[in-house]
Specification:
single chain, 485 residues, alpha+beta, 5-stranded antiparallel beta sheet, 16 helices, 13 strands, 27% helix, globular, binds delta-meso nitroheme, metal ion binding
Length: 485
């Protein structure tokens, strides 16, 4: 039987001037500041918001910025162009404080309604007490109520700090004579890592390779997982499984923020102490292989499903191949990629999508927009194998459902030792996500020659804060949040 060409779905009609830029395009950044605050004077805040809204960068704005960066690079100019991008998002507590009825956003989203401080118990974060009095072991700032966050991305601290000052003046926090309408809770600065580590997170792995590509928006996606309908990321569009949205809640997205500390020297020490014992590998190569098998990719970004025993930087640099894999099935159990490796846990591809399960995972996709924070490793930390300075990832992701997106990935996949189910008939549980899994931390399948061997894992990533937000459209900001006094 000859194969029929698969018809492409019709492009989605997205208003790129109405959607905040970080949602679909990611604000361009070398540095990014997160300014978390409480609203203390609602009437005043709403009137000051009118002056803030023109600063918000839309998707159309980001596309323009990206074009300017591309043109600048084409000229061979290695300097950075001055650039800044501002977005804003509100928590459920923020909407309540403002007197905004956000029932449309909470009705099918229990995580958003609960707030992340309480939901942290469900996510597996350490802490004391039970919901609704759970106290996670977080930074004190995140134990306070947070009503909203302003994200400011840019080319340099100078540009971003200047914009933050301008914003503070609008809301009366700087000596401008304006009365304050907000109170700062905390400000966190993230920075892309320097030099050749740019684009790599603190454990050293290239990040940001695989993100959902959106039908009708990403017109030339690289080969990989199926494109998602716009409604997976943008409310009110095809693929949004939430309720029918009122006007103000269309063209928005839920933003999950997590303040994740990474124990980098301890991670490196662990790899050093547990090299994969494959014949022919030096201990260093065995340690590198273990790291790759925990993540599912080599540090270069090359997926181990395609190159299981050697890094392949050429493959990593090839957009046609770097994300074009489905995970090998049960027959090659654990030979290629451990079932519990981070990228297999968080996007199990053929494990769920192919027969016999045929489960669609489109609604579980998230758009990740993180940035690193904290300094590079010091000599002392490298020598001692112990963290002395806080560093990690300001994890941020967007989707039209936290319940199907971030929370599902964390609770039902990462924290579940029996997921993905591919190895079930072998009787060997895959174990937890070795990076973000919370609970009885262990993984199987790191040794390709002994798939049942179990490796207990220390904690490599420690959550120290976070909140769930909703990033409204420009129309929502202008007509409902700012105007309705
Ligand atoms: Fe993960 N890491 O450095 O090892 N992540 N992640 N993540 N993550 C990915 O494919 C990392 C975290 C996802 O589409 C890569 O783009 C670190 C959370 C998803 O194939 C690397 C932290 C959640 C994917 C890392 C962290 C996820 C993904 C490979 C925390 C959600 C894409 C790069 C400090 C609950 C899967 C790439 C796909 C990829 C790392 C956190 C989810 C290198 C260090 C909390 C969906």
């Amino acid at each position: 039987m000859s194969q029929q060409p698969i018809p492409l779905p019709a492009p989605t009609d997205l208003d790129l001037n109405n959607i905040q830029g970080d949602i679909l395009s990611g604000l361009p950044k070398k540095t990014q500041t997160y300014f978390f605050f409480q609203i203390t004077d609602v009437t005043l805040f709403r009137s000051q918001l009118v002056k803030f809204i023109p600063l918000v960068k839309t998707v159309a704005g980001v596309l323009k910025d990206r074009k300017a960066i591309e043109d600048h690079k084409k000229k061979g100019d290695k300097t950075l162009i001055t650039m800044v991008g501002v977005n804003i998002a509100f928590s459920h507590k923020g909407f309540v404080a403002m007197g905004i009825d956000d029932a449309n956003l909470t009705s099918t989203e229990p995580n958003f309604e609960l707030g992340q401080r309480q939901d942290a118990k469900n996510l597996g974060d350490k802490g004391t007490g039970d919901i609704p009095n759970f106290v996670p072991e977080w930074e004190p700032a995140f134990l306070q109520d947070i009503h909203a966050v302003i994200l400011i991305s840019g080319d340099s601290h100078r540009t971003v700090d200047k914009k933050l000052q301008e914003i503070k003046e609008i809301f009366g926090l700087a000596p401008s004579g304006n009365k304050p309408s907000i109170k700062e809770v905390t400000t966190i600065v993230g920075d892309v890592r320097p030099g050749k580590e740019s684009g790599h997170e603190h454990f050293g792995f290239l990040d940001g390779i695989s993100n959902p590509s959106v039908i009708g928006f990403d017109t030339s996606p690289i080969p990989g997982p199926k494109q998602v309908p716009a409604g997976v990321l943008v409310t009110g569009h095809d693929g949004d499984v939430g309720p029918t949205r009122p006007d103000w809640a269309v063209d928005g997205s839920y933003l999950t923020f997590r303040y994740l500390f990474q124990n980098v020297p301890e991670f490196n020490q662990f790899l050093k102490e547990n090299p994969v014992p494959l014949p022919g590998l030096t201990p260093e190569e065995g340690s590198e292989l273990l790291g790759a098998r925990l993540v599912g990719r080599w540090k270069s970004g090359a997926p181990i499903d395609l190159t299981p025993f050697n890094d392949d930087p050429e493959l990593a640099d090839d957009p046609q191949r770097v994300n074009n894999f489905r995970f090998q099935a049960e027959a090659t159990f654990a030979k290629m990629c451990p079932f519990a490796s981070h990228i297999r846990k968080t996007l199990p591809r053929a494990d769920l999508e192919d027969p016999p399960l045929n489960i669609s995972i489109q609604k579980n996709r998230i758009a990740r927009r993180g940035v690193q924070f904290g300094p590079e490793l010091t000599k002392e930390e490298k020598q001692s194998g112990k963290t002395a300075h806080g560093r990690g990832l300001l994890f941020a992701c967007y989707s039209t459902s936290i319940k199907n997106g971030f929370a599902f990935l964390q609770e039902t996949w990462a924290n579940n030792a029996n997921f993905p189910p591919g190895g079930a008939s072998t009787g060997i549980a895959p174990g937890l996500d070795p990076l973000i899994g919370q609970g009885n931390r262990m993984i199987t399948g790191t040794d390709p020659n002994d798939p049942s061997s179990t490796l207990p894992l220390p904690e490599f990533i420690v959550p120290r804060g976070g909140e769930y937000f909703f990033s409204p459209s420009l129309k929502g900001l202008t007509e409902t949040l700012a105007a309705a006094a």
